[in-house]
């Protein structure tokens, strides 16, 4: 019986691996995209790949499939079929491919005795934001960051890193240019 379809999202240009979690040894995994076989591993042989994934994918022994340099056309419904020596199993995935990540924009303003930084990026998925300051070892998981002005050195830089799926982009700003 087919289980629920897992919705997964990748980004154009990234290497995307389907999140396959199988605990037992599997035999003869077959991947299909929209009902067409794209990769299969028959007993004793090496994996075989078919268009459109020929030369840009790898099938692992645990059944997981990685597609290199993801393209918009890779979007679709994928199914992994495998045998565990007792019966056939099926895993369904709906892959959506989003445009590549934009570079984040950093804006800054001052108020009273604080410097406020804001990081924005227009993207159709929900991003995770991280700030790194050149004079501090730890990072801050937030879209906005406020820093006491007394901690802003003349050489301090702030970097905003956005992440989605397995891809990240970053931008950097010199804090001195934010000061009035």
From TrEMBL:
Keywords: Glycoprotein, Membrane, Signal
Gene3D superfamilies registered for this protein in UniProt: Immunoglobulins
InterPro entries tied to this protein: CD2/SLAM_rcpt, Ig-like_dom_sf, Ig-like_fold
Subcellular location: Membrane
Domain of life: Eukaryota
Chief subcellular location: membrane
Record-given protein name: LFA3 protein
Species per Swiss-Prot/TrEMBL record: Tychaedon coryphoeus (Karoo scrub-robin)
Gene encoding the protein: Cd58
